[in-house]
Amino acid sequence: MGGVVGKDESPGGWIPETKLEAKMVQAMQRKAAVGTSMRSFNSVILKFPKIDESLRNCKAIFEQFDSDSNGAIDPQELKHCFDKLEITYSEEEISDLFEACDINENMGMKFNEFIVLLCLVYLLKEDPSATQAKSRMGLPDLEATFETLVNAFVFLDKNKDGCVSKSEMVEAINETTSGERSSGRIGMKRFEEMDWDKNGMVTFKEFLFAFTRWVGIDELEDEEDAEEKV
Prior knowledge:
two-stranded antiparallel sheet; 12 helices
């Protein structure tokens, strides 16, 4: 075997695939070190409606920067968005973020991809060297929602390594639904929905994409696309 350990066998040895992913994990480790006030997965679920409402209100921001109104934000429109929100990123960083969030690789970011990108920007702005990080994006209501999502992830990340493993997800669900035999299966199902690349570890980005599906943000887009075609 040559002594090589697979990703699934040793999540602790999991290697981030991109510089951006590594930064995300480091930022989340800093958050995890501080801790979260969330005490159960139920408390995360109870916040879904409020988070859902806040994210849907983000549609106006999306439409504002989708200057050609084609339902997607291209790299040029994203640069304009960053300028407007006074987010200082280099060309390379903007390009990395765009690539990371344009999951359909169609050179255009749909609404749910845009939300994930903004939340990642919020997380990455939270580093110790960034002064006034809270007000940097100029979207206070949205930032409170992003903070809730960060806290939810920190709650799941029991060993504070910046990622969530299958056993951590199952443990979080089990804490909530003690005594229910199906709880382990629920945890596994939720984890599988999040672990897109099937490497046994969930990053904050994967968690966010799964979250937009759970609250139906991506369905909202499909409905609107269908209405436009009618």
